[in-house]
From TrEMBL:
<dbReference type="InterPro" id="IPR003309">
    <property type="entry name" value="SCAN_dom"/>
</dbReference>
<feature type="region of interest" description="Disordered">
    <location>
        <begin position="96"/>
        <end position="120"/>
    </location>
</feature>
<keyword id="KW-0539">Nucleus</keyword>
<dbReference type="InterPro" id="IPR038269">
    <property type="entry name" value="SCAN_sf"/>
</dbReference>
<dbReference type="InterPro" id="IPR050916">
    <property type="entry name" value="SCAN-C2H2_zinc_finger"/>
</dbReference>
<feature type="domain" description="SCAN box">
    <location>
        <begin position="1"/>
        <end position="74"/>
    </location>
</feature>
<dbReference type="Pfam" id="PF02023">
    <property type="entry name" value="SCAN"/>
</dbReference>
<protein>
    <submittedName>
        <fullName>Zinc finger protein 197</fullName>
    </submittedName>
</protein>
Length: 120
């Protein structure tokens, strides 16, 4: 949320209060849990940028987890870990296709291939 997205100072304050309520959920969390969220957010915001992004993508749920992650950060290993994570993150969209909607490519002699048997 940015100041420019609001109609003025009053709207900014209203929107910030609304967003804070949704984030902190005071009706469902204790004071200690809210305090933990605030400290975690501040801790993450003051870390050096490379450590911050490395810790952030690991979604720490507490300050203790964030501290442990920050302490385990090693600049040389960050790049290799990032590459590895990119290589193993794959999303696949599966769609059902009716058999009559598929076309068999012609075989090397130009005649249609026989239909494939479904796996058993």
């Amino acid at each position: 949320f940015r100041y420019q997205e609001a109609a003025g100072p009053r709207d900014v304050c209203r929107r910030l209060r609304e967003l804070s309520r949704r984030w902190l959920q005071p009706e469902a969390r204790s004071k200690e849990q809210i305090m933990e969220l605030l400290v975690l957010e501040q801790f993450l915001s003051i870390l050096p940028e490379d450590i911050q992004s490395w810790v952030w993508v690991r979604h720490p749920e507490s300050c203790a987890q964030a501290v442990a992650l920050a302490e385990s950060f090693q600049p040389g290993r960050q790049e290799a870990a990032g590459i590895w994570e990119q290589q193993v993150t794959v999303r696949v969209k599966l769609e059902e296709v009716a058999p009559e909607d598929t076309e068999s490519p012609p075989n090397q002699w130009g005649s249609p291939s026989p239909p494939l048997e479904p796996p058993q």
